[in-house]
Write a structure and sequence with these properties.
319 residues; alpha/beta; 2 domains; 10 strands; globular; binds 5'-O-[(R)-(carboxyoxy)(hydroxy)phosphoryl]adenosine; binds zinc ion
């Protein structure tokens, strides 16, 4: 079964074809990020206008890379929510029209669940041995979400914890802004933090004992006050702040995810979303999970950030 996926929830316009829910036939992504960078964040009005310009081109390219005609598709899937309303509207309208014209089913998919599902996609030649086994705990960490799910099967994601304020990626972006490091903050903070050795500076995220919830707005404020109070200068001083911030965010994500696995007696942890590209999160979570006998999965880098392959893949299970 060949499903066309369409993703237009924020500043990426993406289309992909996935066969039988897992085999990646094509995944095309156009981004309007350069148009937003000088504003320090995504401007919804600009994002939706770019979606409109890119959508037909991206869909045609996804079909031609997959070597398929539109008549060969079995269903049309699209991100239904959450996202920027203007951006979503472009993808949803396009997908509805396409499905009507082709007389093929229309499937609306949850974007956050799809981020976690990205771990189940593979290239045609890859073996199926490494596929995740359910039930699993899912950790979705992106610019808009930090959520923990109990996943019995891919049609039922049970939300067990979420951020009470800022998302993890949002905290990265805001801290980068405070320190004048540009947008988006995640990749640059990740890179700087890797270069810092023997850091004595520490920040701490709110623990929220007894729940699977996260909180990242306090640490952002702690960074702001520290920078103001100590007149932190660009260079090594900034680097130490960045490294301490990242260490604290990563520790919080690791602790809560492993706690959920332990309490729910689950041996699989699926991580997804833009922040799952983070090198410190990947390395700490992998080693801690291994000690506890938990198999942890991260998507390949190109499937961590917004893409339509994860939408087409998860849609197979809905269908
Ligand atoms: O999943 P995504 O592309 O879009 C949303 O659905 O939000 O995630 C974007 C977020 C941004 O906040 C960005 O700073 C963060 O992911 N990000 C990272 C890294 N790469 C991207 N955060 C930490 N480390 C990274 N390497
Ligand atoms: Zn996303």
């Amino acid at each position: 079964m060949n499903i066309l996926g369409i993703e237009t929830s924020c500043d990426e316009t993406s289309a992909a074809v996935v066969t039988d829910g897992s085999v990646l036939r094509s995944n095309i992504v156009a981004s309007s990020l350069p148009d937003h960078q000088r504003f320090g964040g995504v401007i919804p009005e600009i994002a939706s206008r770019r979606q409109l310009e890119y959508i037909s081109i991206v869909v045609n390219e996804a079909l031609s890379h997959a070597g398929l005609r539109k008549e060969d598709l079995d269903a049309i899937a699209v991100t239904l929510k959450p996202g920027l309303i203007g951006s979503l509207l472009v993808g949803i309208s396009f997908a509805k029209a396409f499905s009507k014209a082709l007389a093929k089913p229309f499937i609306g998919v949850n974007h956050v669940h799809a981020h976690i599902y990205a771990n189940c996609l593979r290239k045609a030649e890859a073996s199926r041995e490494a596929e995740p086994v359910l039930p699993a705990i899912g950790l979705a960490v992106s610019g808009g979400h930090s959520s923990l799910y109990f996943i019995r099967d891919f049609r039922s994601f049970k939300l067990i914890g979420e951020t009470r304020d800022d998302a993890a990626g949002e905290a990265y972006d805001k801290v980068a802004r405070i320190l004048g490091l540009g947008y988006p903050g995640g990749p640059v903070i990740d890179k700087i933090a890797r270069s810092v050795k023997n850091n004595t500076l520490r920040f701490k995220c709110a623990q929220l004992e007894g729940s699977y919830d996260f909180s990242f707005s306090g640490i952002k404020t702690a960074v702001l006050y520290h920078v103001r109070e100590h007149h932190v200068q660009p260079g090594p001083e900034t680097d130490c702040v960045v490294a301490a911030f990242q260490e604290s965010v990563v520790a919080s994500l690791v602790e809560k995810s492993l706690l959920a696995c332990r309490k729910k007696k689950v041996g699989t942890l699926l991580v997804g979303g833009g922040v799952s590209a983070n090198s410190a999160l990947r390395s700490l979570l992998s080693s801690r999970a291994q000690q506890e006998g938990i198999r942890v999965f991260f998507p390949p880098f190109e499937l961590c950030t917004d893409n339509a392959a994860m939408i087409a893949g998860l849609a197979f299970h809905y269908y």
